[in-house]
Design goal:
It is a single chain. This protein has about 90 residues and is an alpha+beta fold. It has one domain: Arc Repressor Mutant, subunit A (Orthogonal Bundle), CATH 1.10.10. Helix 1 crosses helix 3. The longest helix has 19 residues.
Amino acid sequence: MTPDDARIAAEIHALLAARAFDASICPSEVARRLYPEEAWRNAMPGVRRVAQALAAEGAIRITQGDAVLDPGAAISGPVRLRRGPRWPDDPSRR
């Protein structure tokens, strides 16, 4: 990952860690926290790309409604990010 990708991944982790275990976040929340004013919109493709990489690793899941999306497929429309089966703080793995 590039430094920007690492920063995006860290923010995804931080936002999810601050929420209830079964909660989700919107990718735009990540972009809005990392990029000023209107620049967050231009950052959305990068946020989605990093989210797809994290989902491919199993750290998060990308959902659309009740469906879990394939991180290797093209993703469009509104999505949510949730903890995945390989989330580092999964209480079921303790």
